[in-house]
Please model this.
Amino acid sequence: MPSQLSGLRILVLEDEAIIAMDVEQLCRESGAVDVFVAGNLREAETTPLRYDAAIIDVMLGGESTLDFARALQANAVPFVFASGYDRQDDIFANFPSVALVTKPYSGAELVDAVAASIGGAAGRSADG
Model:
């Protein structure tokens, strides 16, 4: 039986090492074939890996990831925000259809959100 992230390549943009390792393991256990963990934007922007989806923390060491998220959106790469912020924050106004999984989150909640973002992107591509 295929797992929710079977065969996918996932970018994890997270600056907290323990959280990043946990999310990487979770993605692999859910079937991802490649998981690239970036602790800062420079690493994320220079990754040699083309990825199918991304999990993005909103702030990395005080640096906003929203421009990076806009670039993903422009390139039709599905992603979810995994953050301590909540949906009430104005920072998400430009991302109404992007899932926000608030910390602390369960592994199942995060994987479900990533899988749904990929399904939603596929549906948008078929419609457009």
